[in-house]
Amino acid sequence: MMLDAAGWTALRLSLLVGVTATLLALPLAIWVAWLLARRDFWGKSVLNALVHLPLVLPPVVTGYLLLLSFGRNGPAGRFLEETFGLVLAFRWTGAALAAMVMGFPLMVRAIRLAIEAVDPKIEDAARTLGAPGWAVFGSITLPLIMPGVLAGAVMGFAKAIGEFGATITFVANIPGETQTLPSAIYALLQVPGGEDAAIRLVFWACVLALGAVALSEWLARRVARRIAGA
Amino acid sequence: MTLSVSLRHRFGGFALDVAFEAGPGVTALFGRSGAGKTTIVNAVAGLLRPDHAEITLDGDRFDTQPVHKRRIGYVFQDARLFPHMTVADNLDYASRYGARASDRPRIIDMLGIGALLDRQPATLSGGEKQRVALGRALLSNPRLLLMDEPLAALDGPRKAEILPYLDRLKAETGVPILYVSHAVDEVARLADHMVLLADGRVARAGPLFDVMADPAVVPLLGVREAGAVLRGRVMAHGDDGLSTLQLAAGPIQLLGVQAAVGSDVRLRVLAQDVLLSLSRPQGLSAQNILPVTITAIRAGDGPGAAIALDAGGDALLARVTGRAVQSMGLEEGQSLFAVIKATSVAQSAISGAAI
């Protein structure tokens, strides 16, 4: 099941996109999950719907909306290019953004469940001992939700590795730049005689996905044990 | 150290409107469930924002401060230890912000938790958890300690295990304590002052001995729980299990006194366990007969009446039937004799704590 050079490029790019998307999305996902779990504010249900939108929209629609807003002529895309010189359209960075958006709801769901499992009375106790709010989050809430955060990160990573519809719509299928594993498999299946190479990629995609799911299951069990033990 | 609390808060058809002061020592907030006790301590801690509050400690108003700046130790009914930290880490968490690390060995020793330091909270018994929670609250170097029914979640033996530590805590630390409870025996044993709450209002407040001996509080405490608290000194332990205690009005004999000879103790004498006699009774099995004077008679809503008595300077409370008041011709200022059965003063009501 050895890969050729093009296959390795796609696998490496998938890992780069997946890791980048996961690391960038994680802090934001923790914050949004905390807002949804612990705060009441005007527009909370709107935020909740917005977060879950990529889960229910056709991925092609999400990709097209990304292209409209983050493309070179889109308002957000133009702002990022003019301010930071950051171009997303048809670049691997755009693939990472698409993967972030698609994996975000899965991360938020896992982390939100973990936060809701933490008894706010424990956090109150920490505050009475003199810990300011940010310190309570860092020393009490975050360690207690860490298994949930890891599980969410694994889910987001798996989603990022497998993301196809939004990615190909937003950043196309450029070998070496935006061609991740699913895009590469799709491309191979479009040409005669590509099945053999496609099968090898499919094998590696399965390895990554199963590994991620196994890790996530293991972490989820640890969460359950911890909550039962506390 | 004087804590002054003035609060108004409304929620779900319940209105709380209280004002009281708490001096040094232990002030008990006493009332039935739903009387507003926990609401008050949560407001003092800052965990609840009441509609109106004015809370000061020695003139320093702190109800506008955030929780973490108030320096108020809080011992919850459920110990609320941090489940992901060892006992030692739980204690260190408090001293990290309270900077009272120098007292750590003394506090650990006082609460007897030295052997628990490496354990996880999930492996501790209820009583052990509560002792660690106490130590953690003390290590935050509080100006005031709030205790919200710290014994309510514990069974009888666990309660008995932790009560001596509370006695020591009271004797050894100068921190004023606001102690929430609906158990009269705990309050009678620990408190110096008492604030009686009923339906969100202060029904009676004052020094514990005065409040407990007030006939007007009988309906608030319940006729079975009402009874004066007396001070006494252990004079001797007899071979037959009876101990002699010296009260202001004279010596009495009681069963099951644990305190050492010479120590001062508190006795809770239930009003329903005190009999009255116009003349000094002869040939009675009860041996404890004290000369008393009636200071007040309060007819109850039912057939009973509460009689306040002066026993050589100590206040005593008796509960008799209204018919007895009539037939004996009881009236204020009258001198007569109170009879207390040796077995009727419960062991748990006798405290060896400093008074």
Give the helices and strands, then pairings.
The complex is a heterodimer of chains A (230) and B (355).
Chain A: H1 5-38, H2 44-56, H3 59-70, H4 75-84, H5 92-117, H6 120-128, H7 133-162, H8 165-171, H9 181-190, H10 195-229
Helix pairs in contact in A: 1-5, 1-7, 2-5, 3-8, 5-7, 5-8, 6-7, 7-10, 9-10
Chain B: E1 3-11, E2 14-22, E3 26-30, H1 37-45, E4 52-57, E5 60-61, E6 72-75, H2 87-98, H3 104-111, H4 126-139, E7 144-148, H5 156-172, E8 177-181, H6 184-190, E9 193-198, E10 201-207, H7 208-212, H8 218-221, E11 227-237, E12 242-247, E13 250-255, E14 264-270, E15 274-277, E16 288-299, E17 304-311, E18 314-321, H9 322-328, E19 335-340
Helix pairs in contact in B: 2-4, 3-4, 4-5
Q: Distance between the terminal alpha carbons of chain A, to the nearest Å?
A: 46 Å
* Main sheet strand line-up of chain B: 6-7-8-3-9-10
CATH superfamily of the largest domain in chain B: P-loop containing nucleotide triphosphate hydrolases
Helix content percent band of chain A: over 70%
CATH class label of chain A: Mainly Alpha
Class inferred from helices and paired strands of chain B? alpha+beta
Report the sheet-strand fraction of chain B.
35-45%
Low-confidence residue ranges of chain B: none
Structural class of chain A: mainly alpha
- The count of domains of chain A is 1
The major sheet of chain B is characterized as:
6 strands, mixed
Structure description:
- The complex is a heterodimer of chains A (230) and B (355).
- Chain A has 230 residues and is mostly helical.
- Chain A has one domain: Orthogonal Bundle (MetI-like fold).
- In chain A, 81% of the residues lie in helices and 0% in strands.
- Chain A contains 10 helices and no strands.
- Chain A has helices at 5-38, 44-56, 59-70, 75-84, 92-117, 120-128, 133-162, 165-171, 181-190, 195-229.
- In chain A, helix 5 packs antiparallel against helix 8 (165-171).
- The longest helix of chain A has 35 residues, at 195-229.
- The termini of chain A are far apart.
- Chain B has 355 residues and is an alpha+beta fold.
- Chain B has 2 domains: 3-212, Rossmann fold, CATH 3.40.50.300; 227-349, OB fold (Dihydrolipoamide Acetyltransferase, E2P), CATH 2.40.50.
- Chain B has helices at 37-45, 87-98, 104-111, 126-139, 156-172, 184-190, 208-212, 218-221, 322-328, and strands at residues 3-11, 14-22, 26-30, 52-57, 60-61, 72-75, 144-148, 177-181, 193-198, 201-207, 227-237, 242-247, 250-255, 264-270, 274-277, 288-299, 304-311, 314-321, 335-340.
- In chain B, the strands form 4 sheets. In chain B, strands 6-7-8-3-9-10 form a 6-stranded mixed beta sheet, with helices on both faces. A 5-stranded antiparallel beta sheet of chain B has the order 15-19-16-17-18.
- The longest helix of chain B is centred in the middle third of the chain and has 17 residues, at 156-172.
- Chain B is globular and about 65 Å long.
- Chain B starts with a strand and ends in a 15-residue tail after the last strand.
- The relative contact order of chain B is 0.12.
- The mean pLDDT of chain B is 86.
- The A-B interface holds A 119, 121-122, 124-133, 139-140, 143-144, 226, 229-230 and B 45-47, 66-74, 76, 78, 80, 82-84, 93-94, 96-98, 121-122, 136-137, 140.
